[in-house]
From TrEMBL:
Bilayer-spanning residue ranges: 226-246, 301-324, 336-357, 405-424, 477-499, 553-575, 618-639, 646-667, 696-716, 728-748, 787-810, 830-855, 875-895
Protein family (similarity comment): Belongs to the oligopeptide OPT transporter family.
PANTHER family: ISP4 LIKE PROTEIN (PTHR22601)
Keyword Ubl conjugation: no
GO cellular component assignments: membrane
Record-linked Pfam families: OPT
Gene Ontology BP terms: protein transport
Full protein name: Opt oligopeptide transporter
Membrane-protein topology: Multi-pass membrane protein
Molecular function, one GO term: oligopeptide transmembrane transporter activity
Locations listed in the record: Membrane
Annotated region described as Disordered, given as residue ranges: 77-103
């Protein structure tokens, strides 16, 4: 075996010979081994070696053999230490690998260091990861190993984030009885499994988490400081105002949450340098204007605080369509009491629910929350120096610190994004097939990337398009692949519906989410409602049924399949977690006898968080109940024509889906929203009442969405080891500031002359609110019964429900039968259906480009250069996002806001070549003047 030089970092090799009180003080140690001489250095962060320790060593030639190392403590203890029991007693923390302590003042730790060039790849771990746990693995018995790996198999058997190769080796280890009977014959497998078990018990089992999340904590770092309050409130107010002001403009101005981290750092450092250390002590804790260096916990709390600006109240859009005369014209909706009651209710209801389910969506180790990892990586880049060289492509080493890498990439992206965003917009939607055959029905509808299905192998040179729906650097590869596969499989069915004129689809554009009438025009919802915004049957019979484009038909079929698949998948693949959740919920009831309960999740992050006080459940319960009461007041006191009972129906729907959808989001990064199901059920419950349907949708869908979003923020605090009560406080404060500011800005917008009309000043045309109004009438006023009921045009699409129930059953049993097939294990039916329903308004060209990028990152670089990938992958994603966001903001305010656009072929070619939904070339069949398709007048 080839010799090498490397360093093994360890904190546990000398735990047994020092008091518990000293363990964290003197934990920095390295064992440097080379061919000639092994040595150990033990010291604190400044390199000082405690005098009471000495090191003995025996030097042998190193050729992959054992090197006995012993570490002893000199007899120079003070009186208090002499009275302490030796060895120190260690409470049972659920980590069986620690073994028993020997009652002696000196313990020799023999460390077997064996170099296996394939171990790093086999275990999906870097050498640094393995070096951290070699001593822990050496102390582990085979019996303890069996116990740990049996628990791992039970928890991670269906976990697609858990490396498939590692899972197969765990099965090989557990299912081979000869391993336990003759361990000497399986030494290599046992050693690998010990390393894996040590990784799992002392760190995260996921390489992506180990890449950015530390497995240590400094409980002395201040977190909820004066700086957090000042910077958090300031940025939350400013960003919330900007977001709301431009929310009704087309095009919108997008502000990435990473900008908060970038802006907060220099402000925090400036306050560190300028503010005096003046403060007071309360309950033994000092509170100062300047408690010391601006640290990562403060930085992350500010990010969580100010990040609340993204969670704008959904009810604000409801107020727009209620108040404005071109829509429902309900002037009473300008009442501030009404606005605040429904806004605070919908905002805090999801937050209260997030706290109640945090044991199932935040604490479990399998809830990775991949979308939060880039935020942590950027936070680490600001506060940690990491210039150690790493091997990478072309046999070179790379040592650039992550912060410098972030700044370089952000700067390059800032410059490049001017091309697809302003100077040469055809690079963004690269419709070269349409340029070859302009205004061609097939070329535009099937291959077009502007108004068609986007079947184009080279659809864009704009990373904003690549990452707009799927961030290929962040989402696990299996998630990206399943969604793209689902989109690809949906395209042939859409084309078949179109060319065969099924549901009269040939008279409509192939890709559209708008409702159409039987004249082939956009559905005029004002013709089927009366002055009170209720359904007008006579107007409907004299006008037209509502029709859907083929992509829209496919979308709803797959939505129905998606909801059924979500429940089926959760029961099959996450039944263990759901049973544990309901068991804990049941045992938490006050009248249930508690008895002994199984130990909760005890991964290293939960153990470290045990140092801080948890937020009591009743705090969140009070917020949850208060939100229901507040919402009920808003619906009952004001003339909403909606019963407060709608809130409870909506919450019931949310409670059914919140754990299945939350677990899927926490593992894959993809959220299954309940908007279509809420519209479908709400339209049946309050048929003919558009506003009532919207409130059902708000409390059924948006409560679950907000719950999952807030759970992700809680996971940020969990990973960074922020006291949970501090996270709780800043989330409450951030939500409050966001809601107050956004409601204020909205009231200013309501009084802009011509707002939300095609000729609105400043392009404040309210495209999202227009879609909401159309959906309100479509689902609430017309109601799903006319579309999907008995005799309804699209009743057959309800077949999606049984399809969604069955497909997870099939994949589950196939994966059980053929466990060795890694590609089969990666199949995820929920994500497949999520992709299949994604065509409209988006096209294949907005999904496909993410797949090759994801393959390069997750399959090529991650497998060949895991250390390099771990260091840079999650910092690359926010660097690209921030570069594009800042470039877009500058271009927007400098040129686009004043309509200063460059008129040349690179910016106009797509408009000239494509077929927009209103063009005759977007239809396979056309109608003459006065003709219409479908049932004759009086037959519907």
């Amino acid at each position: 075996m080839a010799s090498t030089n490397f360093a093994v970092r360890t904190t546990m090799s000398f735990t047994d010979i020092m008091p518990t009180s000293q363990h964290l003080r003197w934990q920095v140690g390295e064992i440097h081994i080379n061919r000639k001489e092994p040595s150990l250095t033990l010291g604190d962060a400044d390199g000082a070696i405690p005098e009471k320790f000495k090191f003995h060593q025996e030097t042998r030639p190193f050729h992959g053999i054992d090197i006995p190392l012993s570490l002893s403590r000199q007899d120079t203890m003070n009186d208090r230490e002499k009275e302490a029991p030796w060895p120190p007693s260690t409470p049972d923390d659920g980590s069986p690998f620690l073994g028993k302590k020997e009652a002696s003042r000196e313990k020799v730790v023999e460390t077997t260091i064996e170099i296996d060039p394939t171990t790093e790849k086999d275990l999906n771990a870097t050498n640094e990861d393995l070096d951290h746990v070699r001593v822990l693995a050496r102390e582990m018995s085979v019996e303890d190993l069996f116990q740990i790996l049996q628990s791992v198999l039970k928890l991670h058997e269906n976990d697609q984030n858990f490396p498939h190769g590692v899972m197969m080796k765990i099965r090989q280890f557990l299912e081979n009885n000869d391993v336990r009977d003759h361990p000497e014959a399986h030494e290599m497998l046992i050693n690998e499994m010990k390393l894996e078990a040590a990784l799992i018990t002392s760190d995260s089992p996921y390489p992506e988490v180990r890449a950015v999340v530390g497995n240590t904590d400094d409980t002395q770092l201040p977190s909820l400081t004066f700086r957090v309050w000042v910077i958090g409130i300031l940025f939350t107010a400013i960003l919330a105002a900007v977001r709301q002001f431009f929310s009704i403009r087309y095009p919108k101005i997008a502000i990435h949450s990473s900008i908060v981290q970038i802006l907060a750092y220099p402000v925090g450092k400036a306050m560190e340098k300028s503010l005096p250390d003046v403060g007071f002590s309360f309950k033994g804790v000092r509170h100062s204007l300047n408690p010391g260096p601006f640290n990562k916990k403060e930085h992350m709390l500010i990010t969580i605080f100010a990040g609340m600006f993204i969670n704008d109240p959904y009810t604000l859009s409801l107020v727009f369509i209620q108040y404005l005369p071109q829509w429902f014209n309900q002037a009473w909706s300008a009442n501030l009491g009404y606005q605040f009651t429904i806004a605070f209710s919908t905002q805090f209801l999801g937050f209260g629910l997030a706290g109640l389910v945090r044991k199932f969506l935040v604490h479990p180790v399998h809830c990775v929350w991949p979308t939060q990892l880039p935020i942590i990586a950027l936070n680490n880049a600001f506060h940690e120096d990491d210039s150690a060289p790493l091997k990478g492509p072309w046999n070179k080493t790379y040592s650039i610190p992550r912060l410098r890498f972030f700044l370089y990439v952000m700067g390059i992206t800032f410059l490049y994004f001017w091309l697809p965003n302003y100077l040469f917009t055809a690079l963004s939607t690269f419709g070269w097939i349409e340029w070859i055959w302009p205004k061609n029905t097939i070329a535009s509808s099937v291959f077009g990337v502007n108004y068609g299905l986007g079947v184009n192998p080279l659809p864009t040179f704009d990373y904003n398009i690549v990452s707009s729906l799927l961030d290929p650097l962040v989402y696990p590869y299996f998630a990206t692949a399943n969604i793209v596969f689902g989109v690809a499989m949906a395209i042939p069915f859409i084309v078949i519906l179109w060319v065969t004129n099924t549901f009269d689809c040939a008279y409509l554009p192939v890709l559209s989410t708008r409702p159409w009438d039987h004249f082939g025009q956009e559905y005029n919802v004002s013709r089927v409602i009366d002055s009170n915004a209720l359904f007008d049957g006579e107007g409907y019979s004299q006008y037209s049924p509502a029709y859907m484009a083929p992509s829209h038909v496919m979308m709803y079929t797959m939505w129905f399949a998606l909801y059924a698949a979500t429940l089926s998948f959760a029961c099959l693949y996450h039944g263990h977690e759901l049973k544990a959740a309901f068991r804990i919920m049941w045992r938490s009831l006050p009248w249930v006898e508690k008895g002994s309960s199984p130990r909760s999740y005890q991964d290293v992050h939960n153990k470290l968080m045990g140092s801080y006080k948890e937020v009591p459940h009743w705090w969140f319960l009070i917020i949850f109940v208060a939100s229901i009461v507040t919402g009920s007041i808003g619906l009952a006191v004001y003339p909403t024509s909606t019963s407060p009972g709608v809130i409870f129906y909506g919450i019931f729907l949310c409670l059914i889906f919140v754990l299945p959808t939350g677990i899927i989001t926490a593992i894959t990064g993809q959220m299954v929203t309940l908007n279509v199901l809420a519209e479908f059920i709400g339209g049946l419950i309050v048929e003919g009442n558009a506003l009532g349907m919207n409130f059902f949708k708000t409390y059924g869908c948006m409560t679950a969405v907000m719950c999952i979003v807030f759970s992700g923020d809680m996971k940020l605090g969990h990973y960074i080891k922020i006291p949970p009560r501090h996270t709780f406080i800043v989330q409450i404060a951030g939500l409050t500031v966001t809601t107050l500011v956004m409601v204020g800005v909205m009231n200013f917008q309501l009084h802009i002359d011509g707002v939300c009309t095609p000729d609105a000043p400043g392009k404040f045309t309210c495209p999202s609110e227009q879609v909401l109004f159309t959906a309100s009438v479509f689902w609430g006023t017309l109601g799903p019964r006319k579309i999907w009921g008995v005799g309804g045009i699209y009743a057959v699409t309800l077949v999606g429900f049984p399809i969604g129930l069955v497909v997870p059953l099939v994949t589950y049993h196939l994966q059980k039968r053929y466990r060795h097939l890694s590609w089969l294990r990666d199949l995820h039916p929920v994500l497949f259906f999520m992709g299949a329903q994604g065509l409209g308004p988006w096209h294949f060209g907005m999904y496909f480009p993410a797949l090759p990028v994801a393959w390069v990152s997750w399959r090529l670089v991650r497998r060949k250069w895991l250390g390099l990938w771990s260091k840079y992958n999650y910092i690359l994603s926010p660097a690209l996002a921030c570069g594009m966001a800042i470039s877009g903001i500058v271009a927007f305010f400098a040129f686009q806001f004043y309509d200063k656009n460059i008129d040349w072929v690179g910016n106009t070619v797509n408009d000239e070549a494509g077929c927009s939904p209103g063009d005759p070339c977007s239809r396979l069949k056309t109608l003459d003047e006065g003709e219409y398709f479908g049932p004759r007048m009086g037959e519907f």
